[in-house]
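Predict structure. Chain length: 372.
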Amino acid sequence: MLIGVPKEIKVHEYRVGMTTSAVREVVHHGHKVMVQKDAGVAIGLTDDLYRAAGAEIVATPQEIFARAEMIVKVKEPQPAETAMLREGQVLFTYLHLAPDEEQTQALITSKCVAIAYETVTDARGGLPLLAPMSEVAGRMSIQAGAHCLEVTQGGRGMLLGGVPGVPAAKVVVIGGGVVGANAARMAMGLEAHVTVIDKSLPRLAELDMQFGAKLNTIYSTYDAIEEHVLAADLVIGAVLVPGAEAPKLVTKDMVRQMKNGSVIVDVAIDQGGCAETSHATTHAEPTYRVDGVVHYCVANMPGGVARTSTFALNNATLPFTLQLADKGYRKALADNPHLKAGLNVHHGRLTYAAVGEAQGLPTITADAALAA
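Prediction complete.
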């Protein structure tokens, strides 16, 4: 199979779909890889290193999209990229379609085969291709939130861990999954006062066993969210409904009553955000204020630590990339139900129910799409 790796074009996105090590592995399996010139140069993966791994370096994304049988990316394709997709071409990347009707329609129109990293599952019910970026984003959320709390960034002027004689900041994490657990771990490491809110009692019990008395765990209700959000200095939005739009758990009214200079870091922004006042931002302009509350809603947070993120992501995606290349997408999806769960669009048909529900579009099952 001929695999294409274009350079990411989202604002301040420096990750790359395949590392040199991943390229070498794929070439070892008998496949060919094209990498766009300078695709990985920002994180130290030079064109010479890609050539040494067996890749062909090409000058333009147009050539990659025109020739490749499968495109491997990191971020969702931008409009200029969806316009180049071909019928039957496999696209393997993050998509986050639920809040993005424009991208959904473009993928349907292209009649490509779009497989989303974030909906691939595993035998334990986890999301193995989302987890590494969730780990990064969870840890980064505390760094970003601590920075935003500084007066020069519009914040309250609080040090997250306080100092002797001065109380630590109150950090509230909404969602106890991979993002939330990593955010809580980092916040506790900085000696903040940390509360995690989740609707799963078993998950709260796991976090309680893991972190003990240093972590406050609260069952999620409207009252609980309101009480703790209004008292918080830093709120981390870490809610995930796989493949679906994030629920709006922090209302405009709550934001209006929050402390002046408090901070919301909405990690769920890829799926639309879990605060009603959230809208996507970029690393170029990461924050804005609503009713005195600083909002950090960067939709590609892990891109800020692009080298770490790229290698972590490739560790997870490479086995699936090899399955798709070795077997072809039809057999790979038929043989692996967890990979099949990643199929979102197939030859002009939407195949992921949560996206259809979010956008009011008809869907068919992946099995039906593959059999058609």
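Summary: The CA atoms of residues 134 and 179 lie 5 Å apart.
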